[in-house]
């Protein structure tokens, strides 16, 4: 199976599906699509995809698209660094 086609078939390119998947489901989908890179890396990829789904759910697909296509560095930094900054200050 072509890996890109496998990822698509598993729903990992669908923002609507990423919003519903948890990390375990994403790990299974990555493995089924032929993208098993060992426990550490596959879990890391799954965590990042799960976080992306959470971000899309919180900002909305249109909101994320607007921020990423605006090419406004300040908006993108705020989107990407807000959680990091708040955890560093705690």
Shape: elongated
Query: Structural class of the secondary structure composition?
Result: mainly alpha
User: Stretches where pLDDT falls below 50 for ≥5 residues?
Assistant: none
What is the averaged pLDDT score? 88
Reported for the largest beta sheet, the result is:
none
Radius of gyration over all CA atoms, rounded: 15 Å
Q: How do the SSEs run, as a string of H and E? A: HHHHHH
Count the helices. How many? 6
- Give the % helix: over 70%
Task: Using brief descriptors, characterize the structure shown.
single chain, 90 residues, mainly alpha, 2 domains, 6 helices, 78% helix, 0% strand
Helices and strands in order:
Blueprint: H1 3-9, H2 15-18, H3 23-32, H4 38-59, H5 61-70, H6 73-89
Structural description of this entry:
- Helix content is 78%, strand content 0%.
- It has 90 residues and is an all-alpha fold.
- The protein folds into two domains: 1-59, no CATH class; 60-90, no CATH class.
- α4 packs across α5.
- It is elongated, with a radius of gyration of 15 Å.
- The model has no long low-confidence stretch (mean pLDDT 88).
């Amino acid at each position: 199976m072509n890996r890109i086609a496998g990822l698509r078939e598993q729903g990992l390119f669908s923002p609507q599906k990423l919003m519903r998947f948890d990390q375990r489901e994403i790990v299974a989908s990555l493995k089924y699509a032929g993208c098993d890179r060992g426990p550490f890396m596959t879990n890391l990829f799954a965590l990042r995809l799960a976080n992306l789904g959470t971000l899309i759910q919180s900002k909305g697909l249109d909101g994320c698209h607007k921020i990423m296509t605006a090419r406004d560095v300040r908006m993108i930094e705020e989107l990407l660094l807000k959680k990091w900054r708040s955890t560093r200050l705690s």
